Queue: 3 jobs
Job 1
Amino acid sequence: MCAHVMVAEDDRRQAELVRRYLEREGHSVLVVHDGGRAIDEIRRRQPDLLVLDAMMPEVDGLETLRILRAEFDFPVLMLTALVSEDDLLRGLDLGADDYLTKPYSPRELMGRVRALLRRVRRTAGAAESVLTVGALVVDPARHEVTVGGGLVECTAAELRLLSTLAAQPGRVFTRGQLLEQAYGRDHYITERTVDVHILNLRKKIEHDPRKPDYLLTVYGVGYKMADVTR
């Protein structure tokens, strides 16, 4: 499972430690120390995975992520010293696939990297059908979502959640089941993350997010996709 990994970390000692562990597992690694350089290098050669520090000089990790997500869809593992749940959810909302809070163990970091790369390879090898629910169309292979013909921008995690729900309209999923679909079985993010993604998706695809036609809450259980035919 060798991959090209970029590490964007302004702490040079920490960056060198991460580089050594990644190379020990057979990955090729490029290390940069600020967000601007990360953006430039990624535009030259898109990596298979980005390990991104949230706190960097000039262009910080969150702004770097916002810029890159408008252009690329490779997995991003965010490293952060920010400990509040709101800070972590902001990174997920911008399109991070996973996060690790500092201080962390190198073994845990490598486990997260392996999990992200496995998921990317499973997705690349799977034949994914276009899903249609009323005026909502989800195309996982092309990473496209449209409503009434209008293109909707979604993060990778939002697309996975939407694909899971749209594949089985009417079926109720618990938050835990949706969390597993979006992030994998070996994840540490709380179930509140699912609520945040659903809220954001309603803002993007519903005519009135307060009275959704597609993403319905099943109180005390979780969420389901409405069985819409119109």
Job 2
Amino acid sequence: MDYRALPSGAFTMTNVHVPACLLGQDGDLVRTEISIDAQGDLSEPQPIAVDMEGALVLPCFTDMHTHLDKGHIWGRSPNPDGTFMGALSTVAEDRAARWSAEDVRRRMSFALRCAYAHGTRAIRTHLDSIPPQDGISFPLFRDMQAEWAGRIELQAVCLIGCDHFSTDGPFKATADRVAETPGGVLGMVTYPVPDLIDRLRGFFAMAAERGLAADFHVDETMDPSSETLRAIAETAHEVGFDAPITVGHCCSLGTQDEARALDTLDLVAQVGINVVSLPLCNLYLQDRHAGRTPRGRGITLVHEMMARDIPVAFASDNTRDPFYAYGDMDMVEVMREATRIGHLDHGRFDWVRAFTATPAAICGFDAPSLAPGAPADLVITRARSWNEFFSRPQSDRIVLRGGEPIDRTLPDYAELDDLMETPQ
């Protein structure tokens, strides 16, 4: 058969492989069939049948930790040395000089078009929110939510460093902007500062007053003394914060004393905190020193988290900006690299949920489903096994939205050339 010549309208795809965990079953891949009705929903078997020759089928992805406002600035503001501090200073300079509403809109639109073509259906993005940028990016983001409705569901998280937080400063207005944004989440970067606990108490109070969930960048360092994850868990427990809490990165866990790190994870599990791992960005930035081969991977303790039933997701993080020079908002790439970096290929069969169902549940997006009645939002690959899936980029995949194949043509980088020019 011509792999990409699927009929229009109602039909049944026979002889496909689907992860058993996404069907509520035990084991690895299940050989089954998937049917689509004339309305574009998954259904009971249809009269027209197409033999898919063992193709691996997944629901469309949720990418729950991204930076759409930073994306695609590498061409004008590359990281000078590849380090975390180099990324911070370079982005700060670029933001101050270039982040108008039109600049952010065009780069954000470019990234969303990439994500959509690759098969992503929902995205949570962090938005740099040091004033006046919050007043530019959040109104723009609400416009993008409306523009992309029905294609990609969008959420935004404000992003400031914890040293910029206070209960009586400008962040209060930022929190109000977040609360005005559908699905808005209160966010902050945590690192060891002397009064971190007081700042966390104020942060949780501000979120609770507005009915907002919390999402933190946490311990994005290989320094074992950085234990702000533990501080977040202890403070959330102390104040009784009961909205969802998500933490990203958590790199320092991998360099801490084993007993201490695992004790922190026990506390994280007790409080009910969600974790999102960003292995591509962490591998790129962490343990980077000029002329020295990196020793550490930077990935957090995902196996130990899963063993404690801590919800774990993986996501793209940065794209072609000083924090990560590469990437294309492609969750198949994230799956492939996370599997290799984090050794997800042995021991359990449900890691695929960390790229689909788990991030959707954490964010409160509509749950991806392969059950009859759900929209036929699917990623179909020629791969017949996980080994085949992870061995190639699956660039010939089919993406169905509402049962119909979408145009997977990616936007040309040349579209952004004028944004890369040096201001006169």
Job 3
Amino acid sequence: MIVKQSSFFPDIDEKRIRSLVVQELRQYVALKVQIENLKEQKEAGTTNLFPEFRRIKINNNLKVKQVDRALNCGLDEEERKIIELKYLSLKHLNDIDIYLELGLKKGKYYEKKRAAIFRLATALGII
């Protein structure tokens, strides 16, 4: 679905934007674990416990910092909580479970979720 945005944005494919943001959020969770593992290895005085196929750790650190900033500075508290429960939690939660847990009405929840996705996309330079 192509959405007509304000004059600040050309026509954008909302479904594609959402997909890209969700993909980055899922990768963010794994990258945070990777960074903690590398830090732990360094503190233990060892490296390369596992084989490496890609050597892009600098980009990974930068990605994690920038997603952290986007989550903590670019979203309001409800938006951040929605993103955390929906995409950053290890437990899979359905939308209905989330909006009931947060005490939001269905329409307000989807409005906040959509706004959060677009704010993240903007903060991360996706749009």
